[in-house]
What we know:
By secondary structure, the protein is α+β, with helices and mostly antiparallel strands. It has 2 domains: 111 residues, Phosphorylase Kinase, domain 1, CATH 3.30.200; 240 residues, Aminoglycoside phosphotransferase (APH), C-terminal lobe (Aminoglycoside 3'-phosphotransferase, Chain: A, domain 2, Alpha-Beta Complex), CATH 3.90.1200. It contains 12 helices and 10 strands. A 5-stranded antiparallel β-sheet has the order 1-2-3-5-4, with helices on one face. Strands 6-8-9 form a 3-stranded antiparallel β-sheet. Adenosine-5'-diphosphate binds next to loops.
Amino acid sequence: MSNYYFPENEAHLRQVMEAFSFPATLVGAVRYGCGHINDTFCVLCQPKEGDCIRFILQGLSQAAFPRQDEVMENFERVTDYLREQIKAQGGDPARETLSLLPTKDGNHYYTDENGKVWRLMPFIEGTECYQTATPERFAASASAFGRFQYLLRDFPAHLLHEPIARFHDTENRFEKLLAAVEADKAGRKTSVQAEIDFALARQEDCSVALNALRAGVLPLRVTHNDTKLNNVLIDRATGRGLCVVDLDTVMPGLVINDFGDSIRFGANHAAEDEKDLSKVNFDISLYEIYARSFIQGTQGGLTQAELEYLPWGARLMTFECGIRFLTDYLDGDVYFHTTYPEHNLDRCRTQFKLVRDMEEQFDKMRKIIRNIQNAGGNEP
Ligand code: ADP
Ligand code: GN1
Ligand code: MG
């Protein structure tokens, strides 16, 4: 308990915790995790009897989520559905998906005086959350995200709001980059001409998956849309990918993007903001490991076209993320959490390095998927 302390905004956190209904005394809180979007705290509470209990308290980002009530409605619908699916499969819904604690007035979240929404969730104990992949962790996360896809395969998509419009619309992300270059709000344009040129040279790529969607080649499904390694909790005892977290962007999307976003983040040995680009290299063996477990996790749920487009998912999500970081850099760092002025630019550069690597190894990436298929990897 000794390293639990209140951050600078103790009074506000106490007031937020007061809104929730549970018979325990707040002992302390720490900022928690490495998410770029929400304000996440681990809070420690002392019940009348027994040991202290930990919770995750999260304030939703108002910059990312303009319609916070819709985010919470999605969260409840998806987790309610997952709980039933997990029970039906003989799993433990209290550990395998997220849940919310009620407020004193019977709601599932609290809105503070600034209009910011706060939710309180049980801390899923006995788990680890990793920032870099090893083959074992990456395979575990792949199974969890594949299973997530499988569990939601029949979820009625019309029940979901679109919490961030055009989230993985890469063409639109590209247009937003052009607008940011034009506006040059932070006066940084001339210093990033090389990165802008890198993006401009790849405009056509932005339409590859969207064209396949428009042509009816790729189906729209309910997807997670933010499948980083640190959005899955891995069971410490078994090493299994136990619980998929960060459900704020669950909405209709392309399964190749869920695959691709995991590859973007995990299939290399450097941090997303590594400054030394010689350390940032796409690791095709990690890609293969992820692909095998993800495909298996979906239990035969992927169509032939989806399998064929998986490598494109990796390239596109990496490129898209790079242009999102570059856009935010040009806009003056208004969206992603940053801790120093060049943070978004460093992140953009790692993504563009990975795009280059993937372009060079694209044929091999395709072959790997075909080999997995030929070995029966996509069978139920
Ligand atoms: P962000 O949108 O900012 O990424 P997340 O929802 O991913 O926020 O939460 C940030 C981190 O908090 C996660 O990466 C994970 O480490 C941790 N986390 C979130 N929910 C839980 C939970 N219920 N139990 C344990 N850890 C959690
Ligand atoms: C954000 O919330 P977090 O840190 O898990 C972002 C993702 C990006 C990712 C880049 C809602 O994810 O889209 O790919 O950063 N989430 C949102 O690391 O924009
Ligand atoms: Mg997250």
